[in-house]
Amino acid sequence: MQSISILGSTGSIGVSTLDVISRHPERYRVYALSAHSRVAELAAQCERFNPEVAVVGTAAAASALSAQLAARGLRTEVAHGPEALCAIAAADGCDMVMAAIVGAAGLASTLAAARAGKKILLANKEALVISGQLLMDAVAAHNATLLPIDSEHNAIFQCLPPGYSRALAPHGVEKIMLTASGGPFLLRDVDTLHQVTVEEAVAHPKWVMGRKISVDSATMMNKGLEVIEAHWLFGAPADRIEVVIHPQSVIHSMVSYVDGSVLAQLGNPDMRTPIAHALAWPERIASGVAPLDLAQVAQLSFSPPDMRRFPCLELAYDALRAGGTQAAVLNAANEVAVQAFLDRRIGFRMIDQLNHRVMDALPNQAATDIGTLLEQDAAARARAEAFITQ
Ligand code: NAD
Ligand code: MG
Question: What percentage of the chain exceeds 90 in pLDDT?
């Protein structure tokens, strides 16, 4: 029996994780759950999974949750704020942590889980984009285990040999091929992209996800963040990470070897597959995902990405090549830009323009400590906000 803390349990990944766990009550027990503000959903999850601790964002949300739990006769302890999130990530009571908070808000708790030597199921790609080297160092120093939940990285992990040591050459790996659906605007006239509405941007053709990652998929910033994520997870330089557009989202990514072999992982686009894989690794458990019917899929197609249509992808490669604090700056600018787009304060094409301007405006620095990274994150947010209100 393994116990898990699910950070961001009311989100898309959190709900899918609870779905897989509910299929295996003999294997997994929920130690802690967290939500930012959706108190009613969290109370319902507590009733079903009976965790020892539940964490919310604010004191007000905590008292609302306490009242709802008391009304149900539940004894779950309630806590709130970033420190409480770090506490449930590092607690002796949990073996595993699902890091499924969206954005930089998930960084501190993911680092806390690494420092406590936990098995980390990493969905929160932004944590790795911001603090790649520091997070990987913490994982190594504290003997933690980092398993990728992002479908592409989970696929690559499955296509690499057991014992892979974060270096391509010794394992005969030529390159990593990240597949991308291309999102809702793959075929739309580029000259009309400035008119895109929020509703169009969040309507992903293949995946049902949170709003931030859905917009990131529409700009392909998501794939850019994933290129950086792949760099840190697998020790691959930028020129060995290739992005391939594959609209069917059946191949979740590939590894190309020096002998000409290409290994791919396939499946229906449903996050319960990578979640179940990481939960049980190195074993396999049922996830609830329907078996893949290739005859029904009928065709798999591939094309290179068009950087004019998706400038955010190019920006991510630029940030990765620049190193230092540039990826943290890009991530922070993008979080502000996406929120401003979702709030209808800026148009769709302003997202890539803001990201570009903020990267140009802030001088790159060495990313040797978390303080510098958080300072640059804050500076990038302030600069992005200033550009928006200008
Ligand atoms: P979501 O918006 O559906 O859920 C986000 C969760 O984080 C919620 O539980 C919310 O309460 C919590 N949260 C939000 N802001 C917070 C804050 N400031 N402090 C504490 N908690 C906060 O997002 P999602 O789609 O589940 O994505 C979660 C993460 O997983 C993201 O990093 C995303 O890139 C990654 N991811 C998601 C998918 C997917 O299919 N949804 C796929 C791959 C990777
Ligand atoms: Mg992905």
Answer: 98
Unique residue bearing structure tokens 């200008």:
390
**Residue of 5, 6, 13 to mutate, ligand 1, most atoms within 8 A of C-beta:** 13
Closest approach atom of ligand 1 to CA 209: 41
Segment 249-267, tens digit of pLDDT = 999 999 999 999 999 999 9
Q: Where are the beta strands (DSSP E) in 112-188?
A: 119-122, 145-148, 173-180
Distances (CA, A) of 256 to 29, 34, 251, 259: 38, 39, 14, 9
Reported residue count of the chain is: 390
The number of the ligand 1 atom at minimal distance from the alpha carbon of 125 is: 32
Residue with CA at minimum distance from ligand 1 atom 40: 209
Question: Which pTM was predicted?
Answer: 0.98
The dihedrals phi and psi of 256, each to the nearest 5 degrees, come to: -105, 130
Q: β-pairing, 241-245 with 173-180?
A: parallel
pLDDT in the model for residue 207: 86
